[in-house]
Amino acid sequence: MVNTKTSKSEEALLNEHQAAELLNVSVQTMRRRRLFRQPPEWVKIGSSVRYRRESIQRLIQNGEQHVEAAN
């Protein structure tokens, strides 16, 4: 029997391909941002790089531009 339950911490971590897809950028862009220490924050687990979903969402929210319509 396969355990289909995943913990919240497992669900919250994304690999670089998943993070790139959410941000609509290439994996190479994600790697470049890491190289230059730009957001989103990442976690190294052994040789693996993971991103917290919250970090991705925060980057999107911080990048939002609110423009008022001209009357």
Topology diagram in text:
Blueprint lengths: L7 H5 E2 L1 H8 L3 H9 L7 E3 L2 E5 H11 L8
Antiparallel strand pairs: 1-3, 2-3
Helix pairs in contact: 2-3
Number of H/I helices: 4
Order of helices and strands: HEHHEEH
Terminus-to-terminus distance: 63 Å
Strands across the major sheet, in which order?
Answer: 1-3-2
Structure explained in plain terms:
Strand 2 (43-45) and strand 3 (48-52) form a beta hairpin. The chain is an alpha+beta fold and 71 residues long. It has a domain at 12-59: Molybdopterin biosynthesis moea protein, domain 2, CATH 3.90.105. It has a 3-stranded antiparallel β-sheet. Helix 2 packs across helix 3 (27-35). The protein has 4 helices and 3 strands.
Features:
71 residues, alpha+beta, Molybdopterin biosynthesis moea protein, domain 2, 4 helices, 46% helix
Compact description:
With 71 residues, the chain is α+β, with helices and mostly antiparallel strands. Helices cover 46% and strands 14% of the residues. The protein has a domain at 12-59: Molybdopterin biosynthesis moea protein, domain 2, CATH 3.90.105.
